[in-house]
Amino acid sequence: MKAAAHADGVGLQIVSAFRSLDRQVDIIRRKIDAGQTVEEILSVSAPPGYSEHHTGCAVDIGTLGFDSLEEVFEQSRAFAWLTEKATLYRFFMSFPRDNAFGYRHEPWHWAYRKA
Length: 115
Fold this sequence. Notes:
The chain is α+β, with helices and mostly antiparallel strands. Helices cover about 30% and strands about 15% of the residues.
């Protein structure tokens, strides 16, 4: 998919991919230490054992000129390309606006799904 985007003049960068349970715990601990509430944290981060990143099938995607892991990614050519073509490669945006899971909209988070 990255090569196809590149061929179309669009740069995709993997910001985050596989994440172990220990890494997920570290992320949550760091956020707690920074003063975030558990409610705030769980609106954007799955608890250990529940993240799509644990499966190895989820990636957070970025592109040059746009802050990583921010909604502004939605304004990029990379996001437009993904919206149009990612399903050809069996990638889907996991957390669109008003998603059923209750997570914050994450236009950068895409997961591979088998047929």
